[in-house]
Design a protein that fits this description.
- This is Sigma-54-dependent Fis family transcriptional regulator.
- By secondary structure, the protein is α/β, with parallel strands linked by helices.
- It folds into 4 domains: 2-126, 3-Layer(aba) Sandwich (Rossmann fold); 145-307, P-loop containing nucleotide triphosphate hydrolases (Rossmann fold), CATH 3.40.50; 313-383, Helicase, Ruva Protein, domain 3 (Orthogonal Bundle), CATH 1.10.8; 395-447.
- 42% of the residues lie in helices and 14% in strands.
- The chain contains 19 helices and 15 strands.
- It has helices at 20-28, 63-75, 94-102, 113-126, 145-157, 174-183, 205-210, 227-230, 246-258, 284-289, 295-301, 318-332, 342-350, 356-370, 389-394, 396-414, 419-426, 430-439, 444-447, and strands spanning 2-3, 10-15, 32-35, 51-57, 80-85, 105-108, 164-167, 192-196, 235-239, 260-261, 270-271, 275-280, 304-307, 339-340, 375-376.
- The strands form 4 sheets. The chain has a 6-stranded mixed sheet, sandwiched between helices. It has a 5-stranded parallel sheet with strand order 8-9-12-7-13.
- The longest helix is centred in the last third of the chain and has 19 residues, at 396-414.
- The protein is elongated, with a radius of gyration of 28 Å.
- The termini are far apart.
- Bound molecules: adenosine-5'-triphosphate.
- Adenosine-5'-triphosphate binds at residues 140-142, 168, 170-176, 239, 281, 321, 357-358, 361.
Length: 448
């Protein structure tokens, strides 16, 4: 890379050759120009806080150069791009199309410098650098501390052949975590079966999970292999485990204890090697206390535990995930939107995201469809009048909620996690303590 001028907070990384007039005009408005040879490789020399815009100048050079720029672009996904086309250059090649598609704006030579400066000013106003993700190729994207802790737990738990109970609100990525656990384990080459226990018809749960023999019940005309046998050697992920009927709980417990199962209508035990991961967004401790969930099964499933943080606890991940979802959307759909306006980013950070990552994904996809500008606005995300997390934080209501949560945690600790004792001290019923634990997402086993 050849450096022209001093490194600046605002810099156009120019893939090609700017004219002296172009360079000086940009310098006059505070933008340094750095010339980069894409074919020679190297980085942008970006420092923290720099605003860097890359410009693909296609006024000269051949197809190899365009290809090198496209490669460079793929290696630097967090840069914002502009493309400058030559009126004679073929626009129809896939490489040029790729550059045009990924750019925030396109110019045709001769370059309209006033328009370029206007576009740069606008990008400066709206562009906030998006942090790099930590996903490390396991599908759990994020750069927050909470996600760093989660990823290191996933790495620790993956190779250990024990059940993992994954807790968290709806849409927080419980299934994504289960897939990561499977993908990082020695079972990765074997099947991963995800089953939503809440979606199975209650009378068919046993047969769905463990299979049935021909004639086991009316309508069982042929032998059927269940999900467990299908996943032999791999992993079964039981989502909404709290919805599992009691008879199926008994069969699952037996499988976890003995590693064997029986198809419905058979007394023959089948030995099977399957790791069981489960997830719940309900309070299983409460279900145990109410007799809806077997306590012995609960302890078997809860050997290792992962808690998926709510999106509002991962404020710094919101923009990163939003950009990821937008980039993924653009691969298959044509949209003007390239990134998010400053106001949209602020609105996303301030929103409480009750539906978590799933809601973010849905809002971004909808915004990508309706956005008419390159920048998605808060209105496109339907977040203009949304209740603010900030105002929720400081409202009287939220102060009460926080105080209530703190009181329950403190009293539980002081009562050595004896719910009856805690209820006596707080002068409420045991049921109320369980209700409060659920309301504030307090898992007794985690607190202990
Ligand atoms: N860290 C992540 N990075 C990118 N996408 C994610 C991440 N976590 C979740 N998602 C996406 O969010 C959506 C919801 O994830 P998932 O189904 O795993 O959530 P869940 O907690 O299992 O939800 P539910 O409790 O409703 O079953 C999916 O589309 C998933 O691909």
């Amino acid at each position: 890379m050849t450096a022209i001028g001093e490194a600046s907070r605002r810099c156009v990384v120019w893939f090609g050759q700017p004219t002296e007039r172009e360079r000086i005009s940009l310098a006059d408005v505070g933008w340094a120009t750095r010339i980069v040879d894409a074919e020679a490789g190297g980085g942008v020399g970006k420092r923290h806080g720099d605003i860097v815009v890359a410009l693909a100048d296609l006024r000269c050079g051949d197809a190899h150069r365009v290809q090198a720029i496209v490669k460079w672009m793929a290696e630097h996904p967090h840069l914002l791009w502009l493309t400058l086309l030559s009126p004679d250059a073929p626009v129809q090649t896939p490489q040029v199309e790729c550059l045009v598609h990924a750019s925030m704006d396109c110019f045709t030579a001769p370059l309209d410098l006033q328009r370029l400066i206007h576009v740069l000013r606008r990008m400066e106003g709206d562009y906030l650098p998006i942090a790099e993700a930590r996903s490390e190729g396991i599908g759990i994207d994020g750069c927050s501390e909470a996600i760093g802790t989660l990823i290191s737990s996933v790495r620790k738990y993956a190779p250990v052949d024990l059940p993992v109970l994954i807790t968290g609100e709806t849409g927080t990525g419980k299934e994504v975590a289960a897939r990561a656990l499977h993908g990082l384990s020695a079972r990765a080459a074997h099947p991963f079966a995800a089953i939503n226990c809440g979606a199975l018809p209650p009378n068919l749960v046993q047969s769905e999970l463990f299979g049935h023999e021909r004639g086991a019940f009316t309508g069982a005309n042929v032998r059927r292999i269940g999900h467990f046998e299908t996943a032999a050697g791999g992993t079964v992920f039981l989502d909404e485990i709290g919805d599992l009927p009691l008879d199926a709980q008994t069969s699952l417990l037996r499988f976890l204890q003995e590693g064997t199962l029986e198809r419905v209508g058979s007394s023959h035990s089948i030995k099977l090697d399957v790791r069981v991961l489960s997830a719940t967004h309900i309070d299983l401790e409460k279900a145990v206390a109410q007799g809806r969930f077997r306590e012995d099964l609960y302890y078997r499933l809860n050997v290792l535990r992962l808690r998926m943080p709510a999106l509002r606890e991962r404020e710094s991940d919101v923009e990163l995930l939003a950009q990821r979802f937008l980039d993924a959307f653009r691969v298959h759909h044509s949209t003007n939107a390239r990134t998010f306006s400053r106001a949209a980013r602020q609105a996303m950070r301030n929103f409480a995201w009750p539906g978590n990552i799933r809601e973010l994904l849905n809002r971004v996809q909808r915004a990508a469809v309706v956005a008419e500008d390159v920048l998605i606005s808060a209105a496109d995300l339907d977040l203009v009048d949304a209740p603010l997390l900030q105002s929720m934080r400081f409202s009287l209501g939220s102060t009460r909620v926080t105080a209530e949560r703190d009181a329950v945690i403190t009293c539980l600790r002081e009562s050595r996690f004896n719910v009856s004792e805690c209820a006596r001290r707080l002068r409420v019923s045991r049921v109320t303590i369980y209700r409060l634990c659920k309301k504030h997402q307090l898992a007794l086993s985690e607190l202990r």
